[in-house]
Design goal:
- There is one protein chain.
- This protein is mainly beta and 245 residues long.
- The protein folds into two domains: 2-89, 3-Layer(aba) Sandwich (Rossmann fold); 98-227, Tumour Suppressor Smad4.
- The protein is built from four helices and 17 strands.
- A hairpin with a 7-residue loop joins strand 11 (170-178) and strand 12 (186-189).
- Helix 1 runs parallel beside helix 3 (78-86).
- 43% of the residues are buried.
Length: 245
């Protein structure tokens, strides 16, 4: 097996040594061309996992020490889990990935969250959410977050959204620090794109995909969030249950 390994630090080094001691070929990432021949990829840490998704790597991915929601394995179980992968003793499961475009121009994928947020703190703008051609809501807030089931464990939950079960084909949409009291949040289908717009800004609004700020978004420019090709996730005996926090 050719195993791709993405990530830095002592844990990533131990995983590389484990693969090399087993006589397996090891490639290094996160660039997609570096991982092109990998039969499986180990992503050590959340940043490494999100980087693999950005590179749109096709091989199944085992997240290690990536945090809750990603279905990976904790640090203390990393070496036994990698040994199972090297032995071919694993299954795979699909995790939703979102594809994002701004004004009809593709920006990229996101595994956890898509956010519009005011760049300058304490600047409130007005946002609208549309689904299936219908206006879901228009509200004043610091921003708006769209979370996949994977991302619903993180920022979506901390902003008051629900945990979403993988495989349900939905996203959670949550206003970020809304100006009004009793603002709703929504669970929307990804059968058709969910569209976000900045209706009025009181400062520059930025688009964030997972852990990266991608670009500013001008008022009335549609940000379309669509279902993309899912991530193939490695499942082994040591993998964490989805609802475990």
């Amino acid at each position: 097996m050719t195993l791709g390994i993405v990530g830095d630090g002592a844990l990533a080094d131990r995983i590389r040594e484990t693969a090399e001691d087993a006589g397996e070929a090891v490639t290094h990432g996160p660039e997609s061309d570096a991982l092109a021949d990998s039969e499986a990829v180990v992503a050590v840490g959340e940043s490494a996992l999100l980087g693999v998704v950005r590179e749109e790597v096709c091989a199944p991915v085992l997240p290690v020490a990536a945090g809750p929601g990603y279905g990976g394995v904790p640090e203390e179980s990393a070496i036994p889990a990698v040994e199972r992968v090297l032995a071919g003793e694993f299954d795979t499961t699909a995790r939703a990935v979102l594809d994002v475009s701004v004004g009809g121009e593709r920006v990229g994928p996101a595994l956890a969250d898509v956010m519009l947020v005011t760049t300058e703190p304490a600047r409130i703008s007005e946002y609208a959410v549309h689904s299936r051609g219908e206006c879901v809501s228009c509200f004043r807030a610091d921003g708006v977050a769209v979370s996949t089931p994977s991302g619903s464990h993180g920022y979506g939950r901390s902003a008051g959204g629900p945990l979403l079960e993988p495989g349900t084909g939905v996203v959670g949409v949550v206003p970020v620090a809304p100006f009004a009291v009793n603002v709703d949040n929504w669970v929307l289908s990804t059968d058709e794109p969910v569209t976000l717009t900045v209706e009025r800004d009181e400062g520059e609004v930025s688009l964030l995909l997972d852990d990266r700020t991608e670009r500013p978004v001008a008022p009335h420019t549609p940000v379309e969030v669509s279902a993309s090709e899912p991530l193939e996730l490695v499942r082994v005996a040591e993998s964490r249950p989805f609802f475990e926090r």
